[in-house]
């Protein structure tokens, strides 16, 4: 944020404003600032993502899922994106795909990208038999 000021001689200069804008309400003061860093409205998922990384959940998914890629996105990435989307409130595959607009979410989850609606559809079509389902979900249940 830049603020242009004039000194007593009338010359114009630039001053960098580093203080927060303070919005006072009856109950609290909200500070508003600016950053050059990427931000996300879903940064609260960081704790969940950290838990999954700590337990190497993505590696477990890569081992147990019945297929390995759907058009370039590793299935473990699709599964992690799906879990994060559910926690973010998505109720349909189209709502999951909307999370692709969040540039920070793949970074938080340490995945390539969030899948499209059709990617998620192809992913779930890979569960074609009870045997595949059991081979996938039995180790996840034990985890």
Structural class designation: alpha+beta
Strand order of the largest sheet: 1-2
Number of helices: 7
Poorly predicted ranges (pLDDT <50, ≥5 residues)?
1-10
Helix content: 40-55%
Count of spatially separate domains: 2
Could you spell the SSE succession in H and E letters? EEEEHHEEHHHHH
Question: How much is the radius of gyration in Å?
Answer: 22 Å
Key words describing this protein structure:
143 residues; alpha+beta; two-stranded antiparallel ribbon; 7 helices; 44% helix; disordered N terminus
Provide an overview of this structure.
By secondary structure, the protein is an alpha+beta fold. A hairpin with a 5-residue loop joins β1 (2-6) and β2 (12-16). The N and C termini lie far apart (48 Å). The protein has helices at 46-54, 57-64, 75-87, 93-98, 105-109, 117-125, 130-142, and strands spanning 2-6, 12-16, 21-24, 29-32, 69-70, 73-74. It folds into two domains: 2-32, no CATH class; 43-142, no CATH class. α2 crosses α3. The strands form three sheets. Strands 1-2 form a two-stranded antiparallel sheet. A two-stranded antiparallel sheet has the order 3-4. A two-stranded antiparallel sheet has the order 5-6. 44% of the residues lie in helices and 15% in strands.
